Fold:
Amino acid sequence: QVQLVESGGGLVQAGGSLRLSCAASGRTFSNYAMGWFRQAPGKEREFVAAISRRGGITYYADYADSVLGRFTISRDNAKNTVYLQMNNLKPEDTAVYYCAARISFTVASVYVKESDYDSWGQGTQVTVSS
Structure:
C-alpha cells in the first residue's frame, strides 16, 4: 500500500483549466501504476486516465464526452507525484476526483478497472460552472 493525497481541485468556469496533483508517500512509488477516477453526485465512479510505472504508457477514457484531447496524465517519480492536467473543462466534468495506485510487476502495464487498484486517495472536488 501507499498513502495518496490529492490536491488542486476547486471552482472553475467552463473552458478553464485545473491541474490536479496526487502526492504519494513511500519509497517504492516507481513500482506502482497509477490512475485517476471521478465520481459525480448520484453517479458511479468512472475511469478517467491511467499511466504506467515510468510514464511510458498512458490510457484515457473513451466515453461520449471523452477526456481524450482535453486531459493529460503525467508523473514525476522523483517527486512521488502523479498529475492530471485538465483543459477546456465542461460542467459535466464536475465530480470528486480520486487517484489510485496499483503495484505492477511490469513497467508497461496500465489499469482501467476500480478493482485493479489497491490504494486510493480521499479525493478532491472539481466544480465547473456554466
